[in-house]
Amino acid sequence: MQYLLVAAGGAFGSLARFLIGRKVSEKYKGGFPAGTFLINVTGAVLLGMVTAAGLEPSAYSLFGDGFLGAYTTFSTFMYEGFNLFQDNEKLNAAVYIAGSLVLGIAGFMMGAELATMIKIL
User: pTM above 0.85?
Assistant: First the structure.
């Protein structure tokens, strides 16, 4: 059953990533990979919330491992960061990579704190 939950969550997560990434790319035409950046930062916030919420293992399999595992994308992050360096867009590459890491960690912490605050209410 756990495999089906991860697969179902993954299907929805990858679809959400595709749709959001496409919409952001249509709106933002610069050299900065804004879609992947937004997806990875929001994914970190959501993962912090899901982790701190103390979900049952099956719910975590669906949302944490499945949906958010497919929604966020380390491989695309690496690919786009490498391409920025290759295209001699060093400032964009540095901002993208460092910003993703810093905001990802901060977002996870913020999401975990938010989930903890919601539990208290």
Answer: yes
